[in-house]
Amino acid sequence: MTAPLALGPARAVPLSAVNPVAQLSAIAVLTVVLLVSGDLVTPAVVLAAELALFPAAGLTRPREVLRRTWPLLLSAAGVAWVNVAFGALDGTAAWLSGATWGLRVVALALPGVLLVAATDPVRLADALTVHWRVSTRFAYGALAALRLVPLLAAEWETIRSARRARGVDAGANPVAAARLVAGTAFALLVAAIRRGTRLATAMDARGFDSGVPRTNARGSVFRRRDGWFVAGAVAVCAAAVGTSVALGAWDPLLG
Amino acid sequence: MRDVDLRIAPGERVLLTGASGSGKSTLLRALGGLLDPEGGDATGELTVDGVAPDRCRQRVGTVFQDPDSQLVMTRAGDDVAFGLENVGTPPERIWPAVDAALDAVGFDLGRDRPTGALSGGQKQRLVLAGALAPRPGLLLLDEPTAQLDPAGAALVRDAVGRAVAGRGATLVVVDHDAPAWLPLVDRVVELLPGGGAVEHGPGWTPPPLRFPGRHPHPPGEPLLTADAVGYTHRGSAVPALPPTDVVLRAGRTLAVTGPNGTGKSTLALLLAGLRAPTTGRVTAAPPLTAGLRRPDRPPARWRAAELVDRIGTVFQQPEHQFLTGRVRDELSLGPLRSGAGAAQARATAEELLERLGLAPLAEANPFTLSGGQQRRLSVATALATRPRVLVLDEPTFGQDRDTWAELVALLAEQQDGDRALCLVTHDAAVVAALADDVLTLGAPVAVP
């Protein structure tokens, strides 16, 4: 009864060769600059650099790109529209403000899309625990929990079918529908807790978090090219701010 | 579990068996040092290598039932390495140990194989490799084949046989399906439900299963017909169920068998009107459609209240089906939903409680019942609305011999009521005991 959903290892793409903590550092740099800038030029330049990285993350087919970015594009459009419709400005200024906000949202969120597309969750946990001393209990516990998500999706389907088999459905009544969803969600929560408990017992039995310092079989190496990647992100930010200042558009939100 | 005296010598291979509720799994968890001291009262003394079990966990490897609740990593090799990393094995010694463990269980798909894409049997093999990799002195197996099809179970038992051969490791297996393990163990210990344990001598075999008497019916009128029904998950290229023809007739029992992943459970959902097929069509005959608001519609589009007294479904996991806090309410829910009056629903519930021996539990919460009781209750809830068609997904899954016999007798009774039964099962004994016709998915096979 399980749907063919499986959280597999991520496909190896050129960007996968960059250490996940280098990618996270680059994201941090971009985020700070984008949050400070208030103009249209800065996010536009950053966005151009991000789009140039798409092929390296294996995102070349428009369908695949759209599948991964549609929620983001939708929310960016929403933010832009709110600014145009409800902002204090009128006419061209309003449209400019809307476009700026939309571009900022896209430029802020795209690095996350790239990270998810190119990074194996196991490598991310390895890198976080090796380089940033994130607790292994947290990193590998989260990893194990992530494996359960597709199983829960299948379980939701089963619980819904089981309720229908017992004669319980909502028909056209929205109140009944809400109650049914709430009941199914509760049953799923119970199922998730039971499964999580079993997983925790199994991890316990395998000596997880038993007080012995954990080793890492795969290791995680921060190479020179990872340093260059972060430097590249800094350079992109510098270029973006430089262009903006040169064009006279620079309009920092802080200070 | 209480009053158990047991001494296991190093290197011994012991099967712990007994009815469900006899405390087999509790004893195994106690040996592994995995019991929560706050979760119950302990009496007596238990030592492993002369010390309390939680002080020598590193020398114990454990395998549980459900492979999906034991795998942590996304790749096969990484998962076997997980236990070694946890005990602080130096990285350069990990990969040789991983390869040795994979080899010991006969897992030859490679370290990089994604764990999500493995069959249940292969997953469980991998879990076993993970337990063996730190070279434990004691290997504990808690019904490791209970969730697998016969082929997967054989794969795991074969892996256990290979892995313990030539190692001095002590082995304790818990399983109520004793015969399959007899070739692999030196001793059989049966825990008794009332407390205590008995040791069975060499050459012991469990008493044979009790088969009910049956009166096969001639094929009656068709109730439900499936024409080339198939199902493909959205976004998947491979169908979960390729187009299949099925006819369920009054008074007849169809067993659907075949390896895991051939779409048996999917077929059950389509026949039960719980999912619409992506190809083909399920058609209900007039005896079923009488009284429907829209008799031209297929079962998947009937209202749930119309479905519940026409096609009854019993799911693999009983807990999925329980919706109330009392056994009595659980039994009257279906009749109430299908429009029976409160008095009639109550009368139906009382009658089923008596007949299935659940009367002493009428006020209990369904979730607190034992596995066997839950199974009986889930069948009873489906019977409460007297559906003409009954679809059961693995009804004997994980049941001990007593519950098995009770269930099979209960289902044999239903065959006499001019009902059509569809049993999805791996259990060859159930097929032998109940089936009139057999449909084997995966490979087309003629009906006997």
From TrEMBL, chain A:
Membrane topology reported for the UniProt record: Multi-pass membrane protein
Keyword Cell membrane found: yes
Membrane-spanning parts: 22-49, 70-89, 101-118, 138-156, 176-193, 228-250
Subcellular location: Membrane
Pfam families found in the cross-reference section: CbiQ
This protein's UniProt keywords: Cell membrane, Membrane, Transmembrane, Transmembrane helix
Record protein name field: Energy-coupling factor transport system permease protein
TrEMBL record, chain B:
GO cellular component annotations of the record: ATP-binding cassette (ABC) transporter complex
Database matches in CDD domains: ABC_cobalt_CbiO_domain1
Cross-referenced InterPro entries: AAA+_ATPase (IPR003593), ABC_transporter-like_ATP-bd (IPR003439), ABC_transporter-like_CS (IPR017871), ABC_transpr_CbiO/EcfA_su (IPR015856), ECF_ABC_transporter_ATP-bd (IPR050095), P-loop_NTPase (IPR027417)
Superkingdom of source: Bacteria
Keyword tags: ATP-binding, Nucleotide-binding, Transport
Coiled coil: none
ABC transporter domain sequence ranges: 1-218, 224-447
GO MF terms held by the record: ATP binding; ATP hydrolysis activity; ATPase-coupled transmembrane transporter activity
The name this protein goes by in its record: Energy-coupling factor transport system ATP-binding protein
SUPFAM superfamilies cross-referenced by the UniProt entry: P-loop containing nucleoside triphosphate hydrolases
Family: Belongs to the ABC transporter superfamily.
